[in-house]
Design the sequence.
């Protein structure tokens, strides 16, 4: 007895291709594709079917014969990513099969979308068709769809000159010397830092200078995950720091501590550049680092 099954290879082939008539509805759809247009057909209920069908799939009624041009743009309602295209696929690079509801249609058309990557094609993505130059009246007259342009990248560089006010120049001179200069309002007794020449609360001129220590308390903060040339690392923390003796906080970087350990009420001290490296700039302060003192209740 034979131990292996009998097998034979067969080929089913239509020499010259399988030919079928399209009928008036699909024929109209394919003819319009050849002419670079996409049409649907209206049902008795007023819905527009794309691709057009001879009968309404919801009611079974014959369609009206009223053809409606749709699109050409549409919205992706669902998609399946093809990471490794086959030889028979429409594109030779990763793409998506997508359900596309063309503008003016009530049903979705299945076609290929060249999105670049799977994350670039969430539901709701707007797409447009890419037509072949030679069209023959076939669904492949649309080579594929591509997402609409929704953003552009433009290099931007602006050069400008800033002239420091008297108050800012006075404050930065103090920072160069390693001290924080504030000002006290004689009317409301508020101490402001950086140094100001008028009180934003009372509107009166300020003449009294106050020299403040380089220690303070974090009142609020934000953890940043985008690179910044001034930051010690990423992620880094920018915080509002209320210097001891001041009534309003100033913003600065926080370093010397992991970002997730920074908290409101943390006591910090300024980390200064060496005196020989200082200029009229806030860059004289690398950042504020924890002092190790107990937190302050805010």
Sequence:
């Amino acid at each position: 007895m034979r131990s292996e099954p009998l097998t034979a290879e067969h080929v089913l082939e239509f020499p010259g291709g399988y030919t079928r008539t399209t009928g008036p509805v699909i024929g109209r759809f394919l003819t319009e594709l050849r002419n670079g247009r996409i049409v649907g057909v209206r049902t008795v209920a007023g819905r527009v079917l794309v691709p057009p069908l001879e009968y309404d799939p919801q009611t079974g009624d014959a369609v009206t014969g009223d053809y409606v041009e749709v699109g050409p743009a549409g919205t992706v309602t669902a998609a399946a990513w093809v990471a490794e295209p086959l030889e028979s696929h429409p594109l030779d690079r990763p793409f998506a099969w997508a359900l596309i509801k063309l503008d003016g249609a009530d049903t979705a058309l299945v076609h290929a979308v060249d999105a670049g990557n799977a994350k670039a094609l969430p539901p709701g993505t707007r797409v447009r068709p890419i037509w072949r130059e030679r069209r023959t009246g076939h669904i492949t007259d649309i080579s594929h769809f591509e997402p609409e342009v929704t953003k552009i990248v433009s290099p931007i560089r602006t050069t400008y000159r800033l002239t420091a006010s008297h108050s800012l120049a006075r404050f930065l001179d103090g920072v160069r010397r390693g001290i924080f200069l504030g000002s006290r309002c004689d009317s409301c007794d508020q101490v402001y830092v950086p140094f100001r020449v008028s009180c934003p609360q009372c509107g009166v001129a300020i003449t009294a200078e106050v020299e403040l220590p380089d220690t303070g308390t974090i009142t609020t903060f934000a953890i940043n995950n985008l690179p910044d040339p001034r930051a010690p690392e990423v992620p880094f923390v920018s915080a509002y720091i209320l210097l001891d003796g001041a009534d309003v906080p100033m913003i600065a970087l926080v370093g010397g501590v992991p970002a997730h350990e920074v908290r409101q009420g943390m006591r910090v001290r300024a980390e200064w550049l060496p005196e020989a490296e200082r200029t009229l700039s806030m860059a004289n302060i690398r950042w504020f680092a924890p002092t190790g003192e107990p937190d302050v209740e805010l």
User: Anything to note?
Assistant: The helical segments are 23-34, 166-176.
